[in-house]
Amino acid sequence: MSGVRQNGIAAGRISPAALSENFSDAYPPFSAHEALVAADRCYFCYDAPCITACPTEIDIPLFIRQIQAGNPEGAAKTILKQNILGGMCARVCPTETLCEEACVREAAEGQPVDIGALQRFATDTVMDKGDHPFTRAEPTGKIVAVIGAGPAGLACAHRLAMHGHNVVVVDARKKPGGLNEYGIASYKTVNDFAQAEVEWLLKIGGIRIETGSELGKDYTLGEIREDYDAVFLGMGLSGVNDLGLEGADERVDDAVDFIATLRQTKDLAALPIGRRVVVIGGGMTAVDAAVQSKLLGAEDVTIVYRRGQERMSASEVEQDHATTSGVRIKCHAMPRRAVAGGVEFEYTEDGPDGLRGTGETFVLEADQVFRAIGQTYEGWHGKSVLELERGKIRVDLEGRTSLSGVWAGGDCAFGGEDLTVTAVAEGRDAAESINRALMG
Amino acid sequence: MADLSSDFIGIKSPNPFWLASAPPTDKEYNVRRAFDAGWGGVVWKTLGLDPHIVNVNGPRYGVVYGPDRKVIGINNIELITDRPLDVNLEEIKRVKRDYPDRAMVVSLMVPCEEVCWTEILAKVEDTGADGVELNFGCPHGMSERGMGASVGQVPEYIQMVTEWCKAATKMPVIVKLTPNISDIRYPARAAMAGGADAVSLINTVSSITSVNLDLMAPEPTIDGKGSHGGYCGPAVKPIALNMIAEIGRDPETANLPLSGIGGITTWRDAAEFIALGAGNVQVCTAAMVYGFKIVEEMKVGLSDWMDEKGYSSISDFKGLAVPNVTDWQYLNLNYVTKARIDQDACIKCGRCYAACEDTSHQAISMSAERTFEVIDEECVACNLCVNVCPVENCITMEKLSPGAVDLRTGETVVPDHGDWTTHPNNPTAVAAE
Ligand SMILES: Cc1cc2nc3c(=O)[nH]c(=O)nc-3n(C[C@H](O)[C@H](O)[C@H](O)COP(=O)(O)OP(=O)(O)OC[C@H]3O[C@@H](n4cnc5c(N)ncnc54)[C@H](O)[C@@H]3O)c2cc1C
Ligand SMILES: Cc1cc2nc3c(=O)[nH]c(=O)nc-3n(C[C@H](O)[C@H](O)[C@H](O)COP(=O)(O)O)c2cc1C
Ligand code: SF4
Q: Which ligand gives the minimal distance to the CA of A62?
């Protein structure tokens, strides 16, 4: 018998129909009329605070006004010229902590202009038509290598191509897109949007993508520097933090791997999930792993976070999404050890020297445990050649690393939040710096 | 509870809200629904002579929208009734018989020949209707046939036709004026000279609402072409209010009863028309957009406001605003105000800054933390910042007391009235005594 109440880890807990309902668009797109009504709420602020709050500095009031005026294509161009992955960002940005937090209507009435959904409306309009609104400059004869086809690498490649350079993007994975393809929650990017967006982005021309090709294994940084006029590293974070759980780390699954598998599974009814799932962590990954476990049919899902809920790095909107999806969030508890049928936790409290255990423990029954306590930059064999800063690649304001001719951006580079939109901004700005260096 | 009952030139109705002559009053079925919904009276859709006219069979309306498809104005190319005269007359008679307490006024438009008017007036009198309204207003279709606005634009014709009608009937005669004229006082005076019991205004404003950029034709488009129509709804209210005021403060027509029309949508709009001298009001677009039920809001709203202000009947506040409508030259130039921004209410959108910096007097400063402050040395008190601020009462205009110094001019504010007529810069100024 399969079903929600079967113990252990099993596939097909709920019907295929329920699965496809669960994994459909969590925030369905605006109709044209809804977009107009939402756009009319924008005040067209002077020197608008939302622009400053956006890491890619999209001219938000301008694009919203273009929607108001019946020109969604123009709106899309306003967005995409700052942020070529504006379509993905419209879906995945935690707008509640970015542009929408800065919206003056948030201050005025606690109800910001729905910037994210409007951005999606505009970008969908052009992408659905297949239009690519940018063209390349005259060829420069220069060629740049981009390592990693995530948001940072793609944004960098597109901007370089626009400036007339040729670009080769290499990625260790089978498909391009980085965490857009392997990490972001399914219900934020339905209909294979990540791949559709990469295809659309490549319409600029001048970019070649080589997948299944890994820096450090298939070639060295030295070789690349030799063969190319410049190199951009956008490799993201490939390592994950361990829990250091007594006698049990092999019984704990990595949340990022789980999500990557889920994202690549065509038939979700075949994907096994525990009856009782415990996710340890407090960020976006923890929320996504927990919510998607629930959507797969897990009966009880609990996120356990070691500090108070207000310290969770997942935004309030994400926390609400988790709890309304039926996920329980338990705070002030840290895992101690694996016990038969579950995990033992110890309560915590904030002390003068930081967090400490109180000595009191409890056991959560669990068929499956995920860890989501952060990812790390692992680099590759030759990593010693690059200077690091707190474990990530040190870069200057333009994205230059300690090695000449090598730039870096996105999650693998130090500075900025680990968000899709930040990766795009850093990739784009590094491309501008590379262009200046090459053409200087 | 305030008494809303209305006696307009002897025509009684339980409230001052009438439906204007237009589609809502086109036939028995609609008018019965209107009376059941609570309207005080109707002006029946304009009657003409047989053979009745025909309307286009394509779209009749063009619309200007505000946010969320809120209708701001409608333009129409409909003509007068397109049903036989007898059918209309029978219906009017039946409805009036069944609703004796409601005002039943019949709108008329026939060719400019005395016999046409005499004939139709006799027939209308027969229905038991309370009065007639002469439609000298429609700007489209009928005007090209020498009727409607083409009469309303020539004061002599207005007077002549009004005289014919007054001679031919005992019913009160209302003359409906067109706004498509440069000075509304002339047609009003002509109607009065012709013996009109009242004038009603405004009819629709000649307009093209929009151009279809694919067809390269005005909208509404009939087989690739469009003609100008008549504009009405909230967008025309300011035009109507001014015309009502112009007639009300013209000594020649000061006592001429006025029926206010144009964009009336809520009780407040109605109260404003009445404050400017209207004895009652007529509504068309608001009913067409929202249905007859809106009259409930109008009645309750007006009554509540009258209670609050202590007005017990419509006549208590009718015309109270007229003496305060004056010419620019009499406005007090010694009345000095400055904009004031309430920092607690400010949401930091910066619209006041953009407006003042780009288009006015550079009188608002902006700090790095987005604090906006008025620079008194520059503020001319134009009020634009108040108008563009999305937060009501966040920016207000504060009056400088006599004795205070206006930092812009360096002059001390004086308590006395001083206007352009006595201003030293005015070449024709009369010396103050
Ligand atoms: C589960 C999860 C959910 C998330 N949800 C959100 C969200 O909702 N909103 C949001 O804004 N952010 C979210 N993030 C964060 C966001 O996905 C990242 O910040 C963003 O993808 C970083 O982009 P990047 O290009 O730097 O790296 P990545 O997207 O990680 O891409 C790096 C690419 O480099 C490749 N690569 C790595 N090493 C090598 C090598 N040696 N050789 C060749 N290729 C290599 C990888 O295969 C990968 O394709 C989420 C992250 C996770 C893990
Ligand atoms: C479709 C339509 C038809 C109209 N037909 C007439 C008419 O036959 N006779 C008339 O006197 N006014 C006619 N009018 C003008 C209205 O009676 C009224 O004067 C005008 O619409 C302004 O009022 P409002 O803003 O409340 O609509 C018509 C208006 C509309 C919208
Ligand atoms: S802050 Fe809000 S209201 Fe102002 S421009 Fe941005 S979206 Fe519009």
A: 3
